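Figure 2 data, in text form.
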Amino acid sequence: MDLRRAVDLFVGQTNHWTAARWAQPAGPAGTRGDLTHGLVQRIADRAADAEGQPRRPVPRLVADTALTDQLRVVAADLLAAAPPAAITAAAATDVEAVRAALG
């Protein structure tokens, strides 16, 4: 599956979630929001690497309901950097794994 499709499926699954749903536990990673924010950070790191830029922390916004928007933005940044296919494939696999972990 490609990254764009993986992100679309993730957003379709979670975009309607309330703050309470994002706050539910997601195993050792913490909450669903924590798990997703980690995903956003990993994709942002891949984008920075592909652009030859330093990695920067992605801010954790007050409302976890914005996580899907953050995911869309960092995924678009990664795709715009046109990294090797292996990088976008790894990012897509990461998105799929988090999506599955969220249930």
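Caption note: The chain has one domain: 3-102.
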